[in-house]
């Protein structure tokens, strides 16, 4: 099939492009960031447009390579903190880009299926234990609110124009090439040989940690399992296994081979829920299995970090 990936130059997008190309699909990308032809091919992209998700660039892709059968929409904001500092920028990256994509598909490729990457941040802070897709959504941050608005746009176009859309709410995605967030921060400080790591929060915050290589398989699997009779659905992209921030820190320190002590400030970041854990029943129904256990994922992340830092 002819596949387009918006945001293919991002953390998840790079892994997804490689996964799709490995399955024999013709993969083309559009989004921000300069990629020369050699790097694009290494990622599995047959072509890459560095630019906005807009009609001009989508028209150019279609003219050069044909209409897509599937679009994986990964472009958008990727940071709660940035969304709080610059909310309109986050809105533009997430909501406006989705509106432009869906409107172009409505007019130019109405038979194309959309797989849109959303976030567990839409659920907000009022949940404890596994969260089902039917749970009340009360986002705490502009980031989560904009992801929810993106989902609502997909639902609207599915309902009004029969555009097939699947929303996958991703939880705490980590893995090789992630250069931000908790794992990157801890490894950077271990590399700097800090004797004591002081982390925010209490350490008891629960997250559903998923390796990006499994997440890429998941997104590809969702596309394969899409039904032509079902125009809109939401799926949790989480494992259903919760791990505390304190245990993640301890696991990374152990994999690093360090005896660094960890303290927690007790001060949580704005927009940071206490618990985000997926109810994974829908994934089990479509037969998806998470293959990379957390200890292996952390070991691989430490090995990657040390390799890129050397």
Automatic annotation (TrEMBL):
Domain NAD-dependent epimerase/dehydratase: 4-236
One Pfam family it belongs to: Epimerase
Gene3D superfamilies listed in its UniProt record: NAD(P)-binding Rossmann-like Domain
Pathway linked to the protein: Bacterial outer membrane biogenesis; LPS O-antigen biosynthesis
Entries under InterPro entries matching the protein: Epimerase_deHydtase, NAD(P)-bd_dom_sf
Family per similarity comment: Belongs to the NAD(P)-dependent epimerase/dehydratase family.
Name of the protein this chain belongs to: NAD(P)-dependent oxidoreductase
Organism: Bradyrhizobium quebecense
